[in-house]
Amino acid sequence: MSSIIQLLPDHVANQIAAGEVVQRPASVVKELLENAVDADATDIKLIIKDAGKSLVQVIDNGKGMSVTDARLCFERHATSKIRQAEDLFSLCTKGFRGEALASIAAIAHMEMKTKQDQEELGTHIIIEGSKFVSQEVAVLPKGTSFAVKNLFFNIPARRNFLKSDTVEFRHVMDEFQRVALAHPNIHFTFYHNGSEMYNLPAAGYRQRVVGIFSGKTNEKLVPVNEDTEIINVQGFVCKPEFAKKNRGEQFFFVNDRFIKSGYLHHAVIAAYDGLLKDGSQPSYFLYLQVPPNTIDINIHPTKTEIKFDDEQALYAILRASIKHSLGQFNVAPVLDFDRDANLDTPYHYKDLEAETPTIQVDGTFNPFTDDKTNQHYTKSGSSGSGSSSGSSFSSGSNSYSGYSKRVEPTTSWESLYVGLDTESIESSPFNFENEEVTSSLFNDDEVETASQKTYQIHKKYIVSPIKSGMVIVDQQRAHQRVLYEQFLLNMTVNQASSQQLLFPLNLFYSSDEMTLIEELKPSLETTGFVFEDAQTDHIVISGIPVNITESEVSLVIEQLLSDLQDGIPASSYSQNDTIAKSMAKSLAVKTGSYLTEKEQDNLVNGLFACKDPNISPFQKPTFITMRVEDIDKKFAI
């Protein structure tokens, strides 16, 4: 009987390994950048085209490789990082399994140029699908250059699973940011389709964070520094008022390696206890240094998860250090019993008495004095020769403190009412309230007007009677459906109207968020947004949709960016659908909001005027009906 188990050919084994190592162009970027860092490079360039689908090239000025190492590095399980099994527990480098280059070469056209500093000539190797095409001697600068072209050219099924260029570029951007943040002492340059995306000179941690995320990041950062026997914590956390809806700017680095840890993330959230709004996520950039023998890195294929020996101690130290930093920089509220010096009385006012204002009244002034004597007064207030009273005031002239105004004299105050017909008062057009007592508080018309057709229950549901019984509407889901169809109609058929802002809004975002906004700008303009200007780190909005207030603009865009973290749809209709859903979710009335009777009626009428009122944009029911028969069954004995 023949054997059924056989060894796989090398090219097949490499393709299987590539399925685990290389998932998308960002995976190639990660492996090549980490190899450049391990080569002690001080200047690294990343060049990609078509989001890495056509080209991923990494150029460094590291140590380079000899001719033998250049050929051997493409073999499986060939590595310079470890020599024995014990080395796995004291790793200080990035890659160590020796599968990356072999896997990448199995599914792409690969070109490598490398040269060591002490050598005069370098090595130029070309590989296509694990097959060596050529190996030549070439004149090259010090360092190594890897160029990966036509990714998944021999596996079209894997290539079809790649997302749009925008989505793949965002993943490449994420990997570049993680490596650049972990190594601020290295000069990084990033080019995409010939355009420079980043140029990050060697600097400190704060300068590197600000250089990558730009905007007003510098004023958001609160430094964290704690050194103990088991861990050294450095980095920054952001102030609570700058918390976001998404979890984009959250970075943990353990021994200069990016990791994901829900346990440590919970420690950070616990340090912000009482400082964050519901659903908000703080940004942080934390660098942890622990002894290499206390962690296990090789528990995940992408090495983004690490197992710690004493997680509880790390949790407590991290939480306490962040809480201490927030309190030290007056971000968290503290008890302060010191007296504020600004509330003390100034020294030169301490012994002074308050001056009581004086009032002078002329007791001889009579506004009803007969004005036949033609009294005259000077600016000083003294009477002329014809004055009999000697007073500085008279009925014929309103004079005070040098001010004189001439008025027409009147004979007496009784003359003001001469000729007034008393009957005209009775025929006045004004209606006076009578005190007639009615039999009821409201008349019939008022009772009919005051009858309410809808009722709100627990500020969540709206109940409206119908012929067969009653309908119960979920106010939040119903409003989402109404807004969703309205936004979708404006983006596909009608041009939405905008309200111009008196003062344009300046909103700052990171570079990757600005890339998403540039992609979404045409669709956002159809909803009513007017973009006056767009820079590398901020946008200027001069007009907003009529159903959005100025204070909601940043929340709407932030929610939209959060919803699009998993990728922008390739087709324009799907993109408009995503935007309409996100804006409807942001602007819909929330559970717990009080609605007036008119607002309830408008919401119910608007819901049943929709094309599909039964479900919300997120495929959840918007209302239920209860028949009278169903209610009768509840009372049946």
Automatic annotation (TrEMBL):
Q: Which PROSITE patterns match?
A: DNA_MISMATCH_REPAIR_1
**Every MutL C-terminal dimerisation domain range:** 453-595
Which residue intervals are annotated with compositional bias (Low complexity) in the record? Answer: 380-404
For region Disordered, the annotated ranges are 360-405
Question: In this protein, which residues make up the domain named DNA mismatch repair protein S5?
Answer: 209-327
Keywords assigned by UniProt, alphabetized: DNA damage, DNA repair
**InterPro entries from the entry?**
DNA_mismatch_repair_CS, DNA_mismatch_repair_MutL, DNA_mismatch_S5_2-like, HATPase_C_sf, MutL/Mlh/PMS, MutL/Mlh/Pms-like, MutL_C, MutL_C_dimsub
Q: What is one Pfam family matched by this protein?
A: HATPase_c_3
Q: What HAMAP family does the record point to?
A: DNA_mis_repair (MF_00149)
Matching entries from PANTHER family are given as: DNA MISMATCH REPAIR PROTEIN MLH, PMS, MUTL (PTHR10073), DNA MISMATCH REPAIR PROTEIN MLH1 (PTHR10073:SF12)
Function (record text)? This protein is involved in the repair of mismatches in DNA. It is required for dam-dependent methyl-directed DNA mismatch repair. May act as a 'molecular matchmaker', a protein that promotes the formation of a stable complex between two or more DNA-binding proteins in an ATP-dependent manner without itself being part of a final effector complex.
Q: Which family does it belong to?
A: Belongs to the DNA mismatch repair MutL/HexB family.
Spell out the protein name for this chain.
DNA mismatch repair protein MutL
Gene source species: Flavobacterium frigidimaris
